[in-house]
Design brief:
29% of the residues lie in helices and 21% in strands. It is of the alpha+beta class.
Length: 143
């Protein structure tokens, strides 16, 4: 599996409508569902089942559930060194747990899903850079 394979898999999801807790290409997904779908395409079976979660799960629980799962299943990457094909983790507020994911398509762009819109490729501008807290490589990716 190459970084190009990961980016190509993520780009196939572009236009998929947002649907909380879903992970079905061209049907619906949220940010976690997008990453889960890319995982299934480039690696295979998911390493663990995603538990049910509400839209405010991070605020309600106060735990780093998404961050901890990413550390279990992906390799850590220095924020200054993320590359195409890496998974990016964002925190919407400094005092809240991280709760948003995207797949980098370059050092300046990513693909992500967010409420009210379809999966899209967007620039990682100042707003996103400020919220970026971690980057992870898919296991087994060829550099």
């Amino acid at each position: 599996m190459t970084r190009a394979d990961i980016v190509a898999a993520a780009r196939r999801w572009i236009g998929t409508p947002y649907a909380h807790q879903a992970s079905l290409i061209h049907v619906g997904c949220d940010c976690l569902g997008l990453v889960r779908g890319v995982w299934r395409e480039v690696i295979g079976e998911e390493p663990e089942a995603a538990p049910p979660y509400t839209p405010d799960w991070a605020e309600a629980s106060g735990t780093e559930t998404l961050f901890d799962a990413a550390k279990r299943h992906f390799g850590s990457v220095a924020l200054s060194e993320f590359r195409e094909g890496d998974t990016l983790l964002f925190r919407f507020r400094d005092y809240l747990p991280a709760k948003h994911l995207g797949v980098a398509t370059s050092a300046t762009h990513m693909i992500h899903a967010h409420a009210g819109a379809c999966v899209a490729e967007v620039a990682i501008g100042a707003h996103w850079r400020k919220q970026l807290v971690a980057a992870f490589a898919f296991p087994g990716v060829a550099d």
